[in-house]
Amino acid sequence: MKKFLIQLFLFTAPVILYLIIPTYVLWQSKEAFFKIDKILSGKEKYLIGYAYHENNYGFVKWAYLNSNENKSVWALGSSRVLQFRGRMFDTTFYNAGYTISSINDFEPFIQSLPKSKHPQYIIVGLDQWMFNASYDNLNSTPSPKSWQSSFTFIPKIFPTYKTCYADLFAGKYTLNTFNKQHSNFISKIGLNAIVNNTGFRNDGSIYYGSQIQKLINKDTTANDFNNSNTFDRIKHGNRHFEYCKSVNEKALIKLSEFLNYCKSQQINVIAFLPPFADKVYSKMVESGNYLYLIDLYQRIKPIFEKYDFEVYDFSKVALCNSSDNETIDGFHGGELTYQKILISILDSGSILRQVTNVNRLKDDIINRKNSYIVYDN
Amino acid sequence: MFFNSLNFAIFLPIVFILHWFATKGNLRLQNILLLFSSYFFYACWDWRFMFLLIFSTLLDYYTGIKIYEANNRQRKMFWLWLSISINLGFLGVFKYYNFFAASFVSGLTQLGFKANFGTLQVVLPVGISFYTFHGLSYIIDIYKNRIRPERGFINYSVFVSFFPLLVAGPIERATHLLPQILKKRTFDYAKAIDGLRQILWGLFKKIVIADNCAEYANTIFNNSAAYSGSTLIFGALFFTFQIYCDFSGYSDIALGTARLFGIDLLRNFAFPYFSRDIAEFWRRWHISLSSWFKDYLYIPLGGSKGGIWFKVRNTFIIFLVSGFWHGANWTFIVWGLLNALYITPSVIFNTNRNNLEIVAKGRYFPSLKDFFNIGITFSLTVFAWIFFRANSVTNAFKYISKIFSSTLFTRPNFSGMEKAVPIVLLIFIFLIIEWIGREQQYAIENLGIKWYKPLRWAMYYAIIVAIFHFTGNEQQFIYFQF
Fold first, then answer.
1. Is 0.85 exceeded by the ipTM?
2. Among B16, B110, B161, B470, which is most exposed with the fewest C-beta within 10 angstroms?
3. Nearest-CA distance A156 → chain B (Å)
4. Do A1 and B457 touch (CB under 8 A)?
């Protein structure tokens, strides 16, 4: 046994040494080995941006809603609702975006929280591909407990440590990086927050940090510069841009079930189809491979009317008086775009007029910081 | 707690140290430690189903004793069927209720009736298919007078719940595992080193080959309508290596881990892709399950005794049940039936025991005939895997018809194809290592054994570097879903 232990120690010593640096990086940056619950239920300002553990965001959103006072308004959907901010509303608000990837996810997410935490209004982002059977044929429904159990405290050693070394050697960060702090925030949690100044604010909305700076500087290293990555997806029909001829009937049934559930819970739903950049939308339509987009809005509108809820079509930024110059990438508008979406919704006579002031929002746009951000952090 | 997680890397050494040091060689303490470690391991998955595991253990422990003590055949049969009914009942509810409800409703709808049985929002307990079959083999062996019941509850519980095999097998036999649990264990250096070597190889198969193949298999299968026939062949091949390396990798880690505690588990894979016919394939693939079905279903049904059609009937029943065991989806049943069709000719013509030894034993290369037969068997297996992987039978047929379309002769093209090249090269290297080591328990069992230690360690470090460098996006072990 002694011989075995000595041999084992000698053999694993280099492996353990190899593991030390990434472990330090992950621990120091709070990317892993850090329980986030206290921060979420506290009052200090933070920016939460994980580089290797995006799965944590589902837990972050769930835990925030579960541990804080009830919020009157939610934004709920994928990353394409994340630009709604608390400052756009005159009541309590939380952006629960990045928790939903399928039409099947909406109801379980709401069910995962006690009724006392349910909102009065939900702004729902219905990604177009939720109705694309080639992308999602609705083969599974998550358990309401799945958001609660999605937090990574101990990292997945092999993929994470490899990526950590790759990023270190690529110079994305150094071991000294974690000593710097952004002046507007007290707590930066996760490598994306520390390195790229990107992450989720206290109200759950996203701050795109370095991406915005790159877009302003017309830096070609910006993500999806000139929509090249999105065009590639359209060309190959993958990564949300799978080809599809018709709207998935199963998704429409699921949508109806979700709206029925919200009605029974006395939650008002205000939904919208989030925007693509105009160039991206045109390319999709011209390709002839996305025929399901053409009549998607007309197929979902009657379902909303049946439950007396609202739905809006902002499938391209022009529909909300925005432009490609205000988009973060091919299928994410900036904060300005989303403020314009909210204004368009309010100008249509939405029930959301009860929780915000459209004139104030219009004034705020005039005084905005730049083409991508309206408010300070 | 996945085998390839940091949690397990912390858990295993703690249990190992406690097992060999803290218990001071006391067998009872060792078994108590293994039991609580195993329950902790299982609870990390989902603590709610601990009660089901413990209930199943108690049930078979009790009924095993009752069967043995019964003084007539009827009483024995009563306790036997009570245990079988309850065990399979739980399995049926958790695993198959929704499938039967949905299929029944679909069938009635086809006939023009309206029905709605509702579905249960149940989570499938991890490992239920495996530990249920453990328990069943135990009580059936008692009924058949092959073993006596184990009176020590702790010892029996370790047999059912031993953590290396708890969630995905191999499906052990009481006649093989219980004696090892009951026998004093002393630390065996050679066995422990061999165990570590097998764990390393299992991690390589799972992390480097299986997880990387999974990415491409998922990309292609999830959007198969958009790809050419030639690309779809790649998808099927990627899945073929994914499922083999995933499951056999898991089994290697399980066997290697058990060996650290001085316990030998049943071998589960014996280089199935080098098989020369389908019958040989099924003697080398998921051996613990196929032998379980042979001993507890095929032979009681009459086995090979009787006429040709009797044998064929039994063969179809076994493969139908095997397909069904894998999951509540028609794709698994079709997969099972397809394999039954494959093996039927050899059953009819009595050639299913032709290739008992590993191919080209004692030689470097196979004969041309063996090479050709390996190719045919492999192709048939790949074809059947398409049904196993597809979401539905309809999608499987669409997948296959697309393969055999004119797009079969176009250049393959899928997202990330350039990055797949090193993976394909790794698969070839992997196959060469498997071929060289095909006469052993696992491919690298004796590889480098006679080399100087620095050279041997360099080989192990090369495998570790490959694991860290070529790691893919972590995927759950496929057989955990069963």
1. no
2. B110
3. 6
4. no
pLDDT for B478: 66
pLDDT at A180: 58
pLDDT of residue B148: 93
Q: Which residue has the higher pLDDT, B372 or B120?
A: B372
The answer to whether B189 contacts A162, with C-beta atoms less than 8 Å apart, is no
CA angle centred on B295, ends B290 and B297, rounded to 5°: 85
State the Cα–Cα distance between residues B240 and A167, nearest whole angstrom.
32
Question: What's the pLDDT tens digit per position in B268-278?
Answer: 999 999 999 99
What number of CA atoms fall less than 13 Å from residue A311's CA on the CB side?
21
| CA A113 to mean position of chain CA atoms | 19
- Mark yes or no for CB contact B468/A18 under 8 Å: yes
**CA dist., res. A254 & res. A15, Å (int):** 49
Is B326 annotated as catalytic?
yes
Distance in angstroms (rounded) separating the CA atoms of residues B211 and B472: 5
Q: Which residue of B has its CA nearest to A233?
A: B415
Q: Is the Cβ–Cβ distance between A292 and A131 less than 8 Å?
A: yes
**Residue B259 in tokens:** 């060996």
CATH superfamily label, A70-151+211-377: SGNH hydrolase (3.40.50.1110)
Residue A231 C-alpha, separation from nearest chain B C-alpha, in angstroms: 13
What burial letters (b/e) apply to A127-147, b meaning 16+ CB within 10 Å? bbbbbbbbbbbeeeebebebb
Beta bridge partners of A199: A207
Q: pTM of the entire structure?
A: 0.82
Measured torsion, CA atoms of residues A240, A101, A97, A271, in degrees rounded to the nearest 10: 90
Q: What is the pLDDT of residue A50?
A: 94
Say yes or no for a CB contact (<8 Å) between B391 and A134: no
